[in-house]
Amino acid sequence: MNTFGSLFRITTFGESHGPGIGVIIDGCPAGLPITAEEIQVALDRRRPGQSDLTTPRSEADRVEVQSGIFRDETTGTPISLYIRNQDQHSHDYSHIEHAYRPSHADFTYDQKYGRRDFRGGGRSSARETAARVAAGAVAQKLLDQHGIRVSSYVSQVGAVAVPVGYEQLDLGLIDSNPVRCPHPETAERMADLIRQVRDRHDTVGGYVTCVVQGVPAGLGEPVFDKLHSELGRAMLGINAVKGFEYGSGFSGVLLFGSEHNDAFYTDEAGQVRTRTNHSGGIQGGISNGQDIYFRVAFKPVATILQSQQTINDQGEAISLAGRGRHDPCVLPRAVPIVDAMTALVLADMLLRARANRV
Amino acid sequence: MNTFGSLFRITTFGESHGPGIGVIIDGCPAGLPITAEEIQVALDRRRPGQSDLTTPRSEADRVEVQSGIFRDETTGTPISLYIRNQDQHSHDYSHIEHAYRPSHADFTYDQKYGRRDFRGGGRSSARETAARVAAGAVAQKLLDQHGIRVSSYVSQVGAVAVPVGYEQLDLGLIDSNPVRCPHPETAERMADLIRQVRDRHDTVGGYVTCVVQGVPAGLGEPVFDKLHSELGRAMLGINAVKGFEYGSGFSGVLLFGSEHNDAFYTDEAGQVRTRTNHSGGIQGGISNGQDIYFRVAFKPVATILQSQQTINDQGEAISLAGRGRHDPCVLPRAVPIVDAMTALVLADMLLRARANRV
Amino acid sequence: MNTFGSLFRITTFGESHGPGIGVIIDGCPAGLPITAEEIQVALDRRRPGQSDLTTPRSEADRVEVQSGIFRDETTGTPISLYIRNQDQHSHDYSHIEHAYRPSHADFTYDQKYGRRDFRGGGRSSARETAARVAAGAVAQKLLDQHGIRVSSYVSQVGAVAVPVGYEQLDLGLIDSNPVRCPHPETAERMADLIRQVRDRHDTVGGYVTCVVQGVPAGLGEPVFDKLHSELGRAMLGINAVKGFEYGSGFSGVLLFGSEHNDAFYTDEAGQVRTRTNHSGGIQGGISNGQDIYFRVAFKPVATILQSQQTINDQGEAISLAGRGRHDPCVLPRAVPIVDAMTALVLADMLLRARANRV
Amino acid sequence: MNTFGSLFRITTFGESHGPGIGVIIDGCPAGLPITAEEIQVALDRRRPGQSDLTTPRSEADRVEVQSGIFRDETTGTPISLYIRNQDQHSHDYSHIEHAYRPSHADFTYDQKYGRRDFRGGGRSSARETAARVAAGAVAQKLLDQHGIRVSSYVSQVGAVAVPVGYEQLDLGLIDSNPVRCPHPETAERMADLIRQVRDRHDTVGGYVTCVVQGVPAGLGEPVFDKLHSELGRAMLGINAVKGFEYGSGFSGVLLFGSEHNDAFYTDEAGQVRTRTNHSGGIQGGISNGQDIYFRVAFKPVATILQSQQTINDQGEAISLAGRGRHDPCVLPRAVPIVDAMTALVLADMLLRARANRV
């Protein structure tokens, strides 16, 4: 289903080239201060056309609040956020009506549903994620009330990687460059790579790292709804994501148990802490009060402005080239989506934790 | 909640040292032939004490069918499977009643619930996964009817990795050695490493690779319940898992879009296929009929038979050493758990797909 | 939550005097032919201002399809239906901003949420049911494909009751008069009563009877999601509903078991039938192929154009009179809502039944 | 599905003549004091063989706690309660293996699932409700902490009705007689009627009235999960229930709006109250702090010890008579089931209300 979350729950709708896209947020507690402008700020970070590194399409993406907010406060009723599509009729998509674009969802949607709205990818378009970003802005407002900060950044593009861990970065620099990498020298190299790839009419993938600070101990649910299971599911639900790891992740296998275990201690302020954080702030699926961090792998975008061999819906071989304006690298625009989905998971877990004890 | 799945839905219960553990399977279609013996076969693969590589604890783990199966067929009503705990009173757990074991869930459960059943880890013990394995055996029976085969194997232990991809392995060899690695030479080296680690009273992690063959195109749900999102969530819900990647995964970022895209073609039999399978059999969250494959990272087990520094529930520094019989490496016993959770996801998606079209 | 249904699932949003109201339909199978015009027809039956028996407010209630329908067919993606509110700023609601109207939801919303959108009842307004009617039109299209017909009618207003059972009525006459009672003489008497009540500035309640024909045997789920449990829940969720009974209902207690039991027989066509239908077409929570029928009680509308004693949100006694244009009797306009909710339950059960057997 | 509730959630399993029946309670907050003995007390009220008015079958129905309770407190993990069936092999059910008993679920289960466990009705047997009663005892413990009292009683058997409302009864007398009617003279007449019916080998139905006192204002969820919608659904899910009404119910249509509205006032203690309570303590689907009351109609039991005409699973006419020991009237034993389901709904709503506000 097109619903995510248990108590803080969103349902998105809309196709890339239909009238618009939107989201219903159900379960947001009453009394949360929020304005359309605050939601717009989040949307603007995902908007196309922000720099020469992303698609030159310029879309306004203005959010309209249709319900659930009254006098700049949530009322406890469903919040409907709607974003009209611009120029929905301006493009010609007849060349892909019957084509199966490589590594897109054209073939699989046809197999599943027996039909698809082929215009711009329809429902499978990454445009749908704008609705998630809008909802995430509301979730983040709830996190604000608990002092929880979500900071995602681009940590690798192709083979160009930030050489240090997040602890050694100034996360305040994330938006200081169009790549959204808070390590300025690496950001430059990433930007260069993206421009090269763009000029070759190709695309490149990368990693987003996300850090969540200020999470109280006790969030997350055993055994299937572990905090990291929900985060992983949320990330894997973002278009183009191929992998998720948290804490020590895949490289944790290179440590032995005696090295990997995070020793507990009580600090001077009487706070329980761990000397290392291979656990990534989550133990047994529940937050332990340390920083949560995880990494998300995005494949190179499937739409390339080169001719490719594929088939049409009759199974006949054809060649096909992408048209129009596309992102050579989605990573910079993926950052606000990772932020949003992370905020949504945490908002949900905050509400669920209210039922922990009598 | 302790429930997994939407239409083919399981709910597990039970603590490591309570009377027993079990699972309720709800939504299994009527008319599926299944016997307790078939479930037992799956459980036996997860059972402790199978070789010198795993814990020498010997637990019978006999499954009892309490409901839902009549005359060796499912009836459509809930299937209750129960496994009594052996010797539940035989161990002394007083040394950990007030201790927070490093990288275990003791601290976080206390933070969340204000109490915990500390005996053997209680609910957070990996013993709970036996219930999942039992349920997975029923799910696999449903997959059998559709020709879907799930094959998991140990692909890496510490730094010892299978040097080839799954396509070059004989998956029939998985159970031919106690490591459950179908590459015999590598299996030997893995076994050596595990014995070394065991003798050092340490532990080691690794990867399980899972391959699913025979999946029809069209399984999976946009946009949040993508097939790989559900698989990822299922894997991340297994104890000790730190990461999940499918298809090209994390290394996919080293390819450009023009290299990563999987070109469609129609084979001689008229079947739509792709020339490469970086997509891992899933496009837009929906199966495309090619092999599904993914990889799961397990950290080294947290229980080590060495003394470690930690704190107790008063925040006081203590030192603590694991007692009893534990696995130096969970990977061989993780294989049937990965199999089970994969089967459960696919069984659920098979049922969900029945509502795709009018 | 504001979601109804399991597989054929709707989520409604919107307040009486916000920008608009709407519904997201998720899980509707692909390939269902449907047009905005067909949805509009259902909405027009619920629309205010249809006769002198209902509120003279004239609202256009035009439905806009925002997603999920392409080339007049459902695509399997969420269907968003939106109805803009007219003249949302034209009324002055300051007299009820701080008042608790008797037998309205003003007090309880304030108690629950600490605030409310007081304009026209906000979310608790019956206006929200327009969204349900729009969704029900889509559900009915699915039922059409299975030959299932839902027919609701007004069977009692105040003490004026249709003197015969549904079997003796021509259900084709339901829309032949503004009361929506297919027994013309009774309809006349009901209309007279409603006009009298209206002229006294009072309101009156009544019953809607619903008959569902053509339901195949086998719909409904034991043990909690029985077909009649879901129907009952759906009806009780409609504003002003106070009771639900199906089959013999409350009067069934006047029969002994030997009289109440419905004897099975096989008719000439080889169909299994029952000689009586006290079961109301449902046995053990599952449809048995006979007609389903039930009855729903609506209280008199709470808004009356008379002065009433009540309190304000400071607990102070005040007197208050309804203003504007209201329904003296909601029964005629409740009929399409009962139709819609019934269709939604059955559409959901039709999809759920697809998982009954392997 | 066999699951009820959202946050305080139960899943029942088991057949009448399988090894046993049981329930998993998921979402019960940690720290609730509860013992097996307390659960047993509730079960004993539902147990067969309590008086000469109910079935003379004597079943011990001993509850076993399999998980989730440690040191007489809930731990926050799933609570598994199991009740072994006695003498599961002692009866011969071959006479109904192929017969469709009138007004039972035999035919509909066969239609739905293509098979059924025919022994004693299998899953459709009212025996399943013992699991609900056990779970309800845990829910009631949670209500105790909030001062919420649930009191159900038999208010009518056949045409013999308690002549006064619940306000004029001493609810402490409910268990003072085997009928569970707190109006002693009426209880006598009911008992007489039940004995007459029993001696005629027939059965009789009736009403249970339920009163819930001490409910705080603010429980219940708009718009589909109204408090009375959930109560209605819960009641309609009990075997043999044909109707539900709350507050003024079906007879509310005989009042005009000016009579039916409940005027608010502030009492001497500063509490908001209503002068009448036609609303039954629920307005807009949310509790208003007044007493909640509702009424549930039970049909006469379908199993009668008389010969009846019916068909077998080949569609052939047969005659069939009930055997063994059955209840001539389920009302006395239905009382604890109504109590249990009511407690479960309220426990769920209590937890859900924790997410109302920031």
UniProtKB/TrEMBL annotation, chains A, B, C, D:
One of its GO terms (cellular component) is cytosol. Reduced FMN (FMNH(2)). It catalyses: 5-O-(1-carboxyvinyl)-3-phosphoshikimate = chorismate + phosphate. Gene3D superfamilies: Chorismate synthase AroC. NADP(+) binds at residue 46. Transmembrane segments: none annotated. This reaction introduces a second double bond into the aromatic ring system. This is Chorismate synthase.
